Amino acid sequence: MTQPIASDNQAIRKLIRSYERATGLTSCFRPTGPVFEQLGGLTGLHVSPFCVIPRRDQMDLCRREDAADLHEQFAQPTLPLMRTCHAGASEIIVPVHWQNQLVLVVFFGQFRVTDDQPSTLPRWPDAKIKHAIQLLTTLQSHLLAIYQQRLANRPKPDDPRLEQVIDWLTMHISEDPSLEALANMLCVSPTWASHLIRQLAGKPFTQLKDDIRVERAKHLLANSPLKVASIAAQLGMDDANYFSRFFKRKTGTTASDYRKVHQVAWDV
Known about the structure:
Elements lengths: L8 H15 L2 E6 L17 H9 L1 H10 L1 H4 L7 E4 L5 E9 L2 E11 L14 H28 L6 H12 L7 H8 L3 H12 L3 H19 L4 H7 L5 H12 L3 H8 L6
Antiparallel strand pairs: 1-4, 2-3, 3-4
Helix pairs in contact: 1-5, 2-3, 7-8, 9-12, 10-11
């Protein structure tokens, strides 16, 4: 299966959808770094009917498998592989590494390989799984090439320390990063970190973090089917009502109105 390398967001969505059709699976796109973070809305697999109950009753386990455990599981580059999640569904994982760092994971599923797994999932024979993994190995190569292209084309700030700060905050925004945590990353005191951010960004730490949250929220509202509560959680906010007030205060419009105007079509 041959695909041209195109790095704009819509082209990447079409690329992922083409591999969904080729494998007969649904995907979930999980960036672990800033280059792909605006594409975090490709989440069809993990909002599937099968996932409704596990995500309702065991959300912490789902989040850990989807995000927190990924760096540990894929510390070293590897080809696509099959795994079974805590709820019993099998899926194929496509990890993408750059310079030995995990930058992206795409999940494809769900199915079962044994009778012990949930009967609501389709049974897949070994040959079908092997064929899907072969196809997704090609996708892995495409995504790495796209990552390298996007990385090379990113605008460079005047001071590389600002890029470092923005990248770190973007990667950790779901954890509601503190000034102290940022200072530890920079190996400076919180007072000096605060001064440095004002000097580099021209705004205080809290405003910079809020600006990153707003941009991330806009992208998720426009580019994903996620509910407001799920978007709030990805921004480090446990209270969906607080997020709604925050978004309206920062943008002058409600999250639902913003989505109505800006949401993209998902069937490509």
